């Protein structure tokens, strides 16, 4: 399997990216029938954004520490941090998609300029998240299919130098969206 993925790295990256993005858009548009998903009590669905904010903070820490370890050429520790960040991302996404598929996206309580600012932050967060998915799959698959000693001969470092900061900014902006939706009192927006 590993050799087959290595020979077809771009194709596997494309398929994984398309499937992932299709799931995200299907959940966001509530096109996934609720009957195929496990149900959840309202309190649990309401807790998911708060849990996901914590997951995001942990992922941010893992990305920062993973980049630090790569710069220090401690590649095994780098790998562990980046795999942890990816695992946290998968957990975040699974919870987010489950909530959105069952309950729909959270609407922003503000209007006017505040709403435009929120939508701008949300748009940048979403665009970065979409761009990051194929980049993350690509560097992850390169790391999986190549020994550490061979990675310098691949585009892993070059792609990771783009993927990591975009991924980090996406997570940070996701937390800004969380704060604006769930922590700022609705009355603050007027």
TrEMBL record:
Stretches assigned to coiled coil: none
Protein name according to UniProt: DUF420 domain-containing protein
InterPro entries, per the entry: Cyt_c_oxidase_su3_a-hlx, DUF420
Transmembrane segments: 47-68, 80-98, 118-141, 162-184
Gene3D superfamilies (alphabetical): Cytochrome c oxidase, subunit III, four-helix bundle (1.20.120.80)
Keywords on record: Membrane, Transmembrane, Transmembrane helix
Record carries keyword Cytoplasm: no
Top-level taxonomic group: Archaea
Pfam families named in the record: DUF420
Organism: Halorubellus litoreus
